[in-house]
Task: inverse folding
């Protein structure tokens, strides 16, 4: 069975984007969840921790899946720099078309 293997640079780019892209998502999620659940954590810490962990795990899974789909869509040899350059050029084209 012939299987396409990811290039090391693509895997490294994907891991980099997933690692450093998770910080703002996790921070925003913490800002939303933790203030709401403060009283609940004091009343029932086990259940609260299980639910909060489940929310973080679900968001992490969705984020990883989303990043993987983006990398697959833009090709096997693309890394995050090329992906960013393509995104910026598309935004500029849309902006120019909007102004014209």
Result:
């Amino acid at each position: 069975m012939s299987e396409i293997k990811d290039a090391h640079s693509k895997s490294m780019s994907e891991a980099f984007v997933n690692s450093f892209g998770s910080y703002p998502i996790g921070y925003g999620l913490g800002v939303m969840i933790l203030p709401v659940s403060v009283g609940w954590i004091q009343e029932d810490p086990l259940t609260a921790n299980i639910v909060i962990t489940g929310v973080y795990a679900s968001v992490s899974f969705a984020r990883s899946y989303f990043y993987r789909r983006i990398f697959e869509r833009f090709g096997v040899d693309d890394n995050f720099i090329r992906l960013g350059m393509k995104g910026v050029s598309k935004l500029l084209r849309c902006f120019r078309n909007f102004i014209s």
